[in-house]
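ok, trying the design again with the full structure, not the truncated one.
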């Protein structure tokens, strides 16, 4: 595993700017990987990360772990929480790391002498102890076959729109095989 400073240089390049989310995300990923026994997160194919927010920290987690949506090693769960779960698929060990609300307050208390909130948070998140920044839970994650990396296990066509559906994401309703859009989960309207 690289050092925090090394990852932060890489994170800034990957994300486009330096921000509190990069520091928290890098530290969250370093801690999560250590706790599931992966000292070299990018080596091998044992790591799956579930990220619960689509903000800055998600990019930092990608920087440290190399996990990506396109490789099916990064799973996005839209919970709006600065939290992520790190799963070692070989051992089954899984750790959920949650950023503590109290860390914002600690940044103000310990680094209030710095001019801006951003500087206070950057300094605090680089230097506070893991247990001041994060809460850690041991969890169990069941990874369905259809969520595994590798070639798609199945591909069918929606009987309403004709579009192809990979990986068992289809829904069966009243004798029809439907995509999730046609089954009512459409996020767009045709114009
Ligand atoms: Zn950012
Ligand atoms: Zn459809």
């Amino acid at each position: 595993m690289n050092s925090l400073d090394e990852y932060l240089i890489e994170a800034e390049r990957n994300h486009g700017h330096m921000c509190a989310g990069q520091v928290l995300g890098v530290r969250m990923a370093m801690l999560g990987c250590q706790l599931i026994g992966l000292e070299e997160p990018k080596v091998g194919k044992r790591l799956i990360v579930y990220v619960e927010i689509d903000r800055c920290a998600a990019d930092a987690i990608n920087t440290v772990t190399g996990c990506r949506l396109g490789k099916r090693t990064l799973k996005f769960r839209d919970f709006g929480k600065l939290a992520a779960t790190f799963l070692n698929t070989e051992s089954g060990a899984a750790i959920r790391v949650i950023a503590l609300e109290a860390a914002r307050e600690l940044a103000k208390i310990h680094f209030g002498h710095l001019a801006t909130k951003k500087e206070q948070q950057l300094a605090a998140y680089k230097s506070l102890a893991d247990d001041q920044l994060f809460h850690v839970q041991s969890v169990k994650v069941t990874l369905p076959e259809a969520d595994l990396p590798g070639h798609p296990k199945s591909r069918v066509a929606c009987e309403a729109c004709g579009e192809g559906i990979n990986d068992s994401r289809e829904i069966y309703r009243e004798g029809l095989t439907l995509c999730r859009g046609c089954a009512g989960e459409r996020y767009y309207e045709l114009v």
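Keeping the full-length input from now on. The domain at 4-145 is CATH 3.30.1330.130 (60s Ribosomal Protein L30; Chain: A;).
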